[in-house]
Structures are given as structure tokens and as C-alpha cells.
Amino acid sequence: MIARFAIPFFYIMTLVIGPLLLATLFHWLLPRRWWKKVTLVVTLVIWAVIAYGSLSGFEQLKVSQVEFVSADLPKAFDGYRIVQFTDAHVGTFAGARQWLLKRAIETINKQQADAIVFTGDLQNVWPDELEEQIPILRKLHAPDGVFSVLGNHDYAVYQNCDNDEKAHNCQLTQQAERRMGWTLLMNTHRIIRRDSDSIVIAGMENWGKAERMPRRGDVAKTLKGLSTTQPSAHAPFIVMLQHDPSAWHEKILPECQAQLTLSGHTHGGQFTLFGWSPAALTYSEWHDITYEGTRAINVSTGLGGLIPFRLGMPGEIEVITLRCKK
Length: 326
Prior knowledge:
It contains seven helices and twelve strands. It is α/β, with parallel strands linked by helices. The radius of gyration is 21 Å and the shape is globular.
């Protein structure tokens, strides 16, 4: 229900309710001859900001370069490149905005990475949003494959229907990703080999710290069959995909030795002012790469959003280069 009405709620609050509240505040705080003029100016500024963020701001796209250095990385994978994208919310790219999704997919392919990973939230609410976008998303290709995990929006938590229909819709979402040729990892992993060396791309189901989020991620199940307790020199190098960065401190760091975790979910708040984002109020890791000793999490600020608005936080595609520590 919240997701369904998020867009009209956003615009009503920012374009109507917000200015009315400010008018009331200025009426009480400012001299009579000033409060109407100040209210008019502030309202025009707000409307201009919303218009810019909904049009030009939402259309911006950047490619970020990230380097992760690890002593655990096998030498055969020095220079290995992974493109990460996340939070596509492709329902927002329907109709006249579809060219933005096409541009993003073309940009990802141009990076010529060894592997592509998607870290969740492919849809807004319903799996039928994916149908018209599947021919575009199917064009993603990389030598070692396209790997994905589910985000909170890819489950049925925002759907107003009974449990049987929700279960059916979850299956439709998963089937759509597989029809696109993606390897959907649901508490599973894959091994990528270079001669006698290998790395692991592991994918947890969503695990959010907030109880209203899906909490299906299982570290032990995801890494089943791997020797994750060996000495560092023989430990597998693991790239863990997990939609929600909350899981890094809560589950991944204490329960396994994954050297690099890739997440999304925060969207960077879709807004930043002088480097500050409202996402920082909820998440300790909400963008860029953060280290805990020799291990790290990279949180991408996402490609799209349920609400088509971005200000100072453009859509993002990240190219992650793995390097051996000298």
C-alpha cells in the first residue's frame, strides 16, 4: 500500500503540504509585510528543485571506479573487473523513460567487465512491470555471466493480496530474472575459475535489520560446501552479494570471511546536500566503499528508484577492479 501511493504522496507533500506548512511558520515568525513574500520565494524554490530532480536530476547517470585490494585474491584474478548495478526499479522506467534503462544497459556492456552483478530491487511492486523491460535487460552480457540477488521490493511485501498470490508473484519475479539469462543466487554461490585459481560469487537472499524487511538471508546456506574457516593463505576469495547493507555488520562479518560485500538498497537517499544524505540517518554504510580491517563493503547508490527523483545523487553504475596486495 505504501509503495503504491509513494509517488503521489511525495509530490503532494513537497508541492502542496510543505509550502503550506512553511507559510504557517513564516506567518508566525516574520513581520506581516515579509511573510507572504518569503513564502512565495521559498515555494518557487521548492517547486524548481522538485522539477529539476524529477527531470534532469533523474536522468543523470555516472560510472564510478572502485578498486579493492586483498592479500587473499588469487594472482590469476589480479585486475578482474566486476560491474555492479542495483535498485533498477524498472517499473519507473516504463513508457517515455525507457530510454534511460536502455542507456544504462548499453553503458554497463561498454565497460567490458569480466562479470556483472545486480544487487536487488529489480521491480517496484509487481512482477508484470518486468515484461516490457525483459528484452532490454536480456542484452546484458559478460564472459563469466550476470549474477543477481533479490531485494526487498522483489518479494511480495508491498503487494496487497493473499499469501498464495504473493508466493505466485515471487515465483514470477524469479522466473523473469532467469529468462533474462541471469544467474539468480538465492542463498547459493558460484565458483569462477582461472586455470587452477578461483574466486566465489555468493548471493544471499535479502536480510534487513528492520523487521518489516524480508529476512531470508542465510550465510551458512549461501556458503555451504566452501572451506571458510581455513587459514587466510588458503581461504577462498568471496564476493558476497547482499541487497541490504545492514546485513554486513549483523550477519556477514560475524558469520563468514567474505572479503568483499556488494550491496545497494539505500539509493544514497536519492538526495544529497553538501555531501549529506538522509540515508546517513538510517545506515552507517550508505554509499561508496567502507573497510573493516581487510574486509570491505561497497554500497552502490542505485540506478533508479520507486520515486523518479534524484538531486545531487545521480544514477550509478560501478566498475569494481580486484587487485592482489603486493
